Description:
By secondary structure, the protein is α/β, with parallel strands linked by helices. It has 2 domains: 2-108 and 225-250, NAD(P)-binding Rossmann-like Domain (Rossmann fold); 114-221, Dihydrodipicolinate Reductase, domain 2 (2-Layer Sandwich), CATH 3.30.360. The protein has 7 helices and 12 strands. Helix 1 packs across helix 7 (228-240) and helix 3 runs parallel beside helix 4. The two termini are 22 Å apart. The model has no long low-confidence stretch (mean pLDDT 95).
Amino acid sequence: MIKVAVCGACGKMGGEVIKAVEEDDSLELAAQIDICSGHDIFETIEEALKEVKIDVLVDFTQPKSIFENAKFCLNNGIKPVIGTTGLSDEQIEELKKLSTEKNTSCLIAPNFSTGAVLMMMFSAQAAKYFDNAEIIELHHNQKKDAPSGTAVKTAKMIAEANANKSFAKGNCQEEELIKGSRGGTSYSDIHTHSVRMPGYIASQEVIFGSSGQIFKIRHDSMDRACYMQGVILAVKYVSEHNDFVYGLEKIL
């Protein structure tokens, strides 16, 4: 049995992870961790580790806490599966280095939905045939980071698959009358736009253009349960390996 702890247990995603773990016969819910008070809920990973054995920790907490959580896990023989977004490239590289040094697996996935991962993979392929690309991501208005980790990962995958060419080909010199109107630019000059609105869970559209045509790839999450297949896949993967993985597409 793989002993799994869930960090962010009181959140909506944390609740779904707990349910998924309890429904899988090969997994055992070892600990629930969150700052909220409740029966059998530990406030910190350190507190939980003093009481129970933890093989894998699934983290769906806050951007400000995930980096330190992951470092604590790797330094204490716990394999982290990170679903919270907001890590910088520098932090990801540091976790990769620590994972290698400790010979302890760490998996970071900006998105655990298999459909969203396929959207990113298809986008990287489609970009070879278009000159311009922009990303629009839409989430509920309680999401604290912008743009989403999925949008950042998508832009990075597109850039890496296409020799980091600019995807703002032919754009004129622009003047924003309202700051931020054109979104933020990231890898390969890809404009990324973030929408925050009650009613959404998570959606993303990648728009490609070239002379005379527009091509769109879109994914919509209607229920948080759609992420659980990917989460359980990641938990089982890290339990059997000791490598560092960034992106669910690496283990599909």
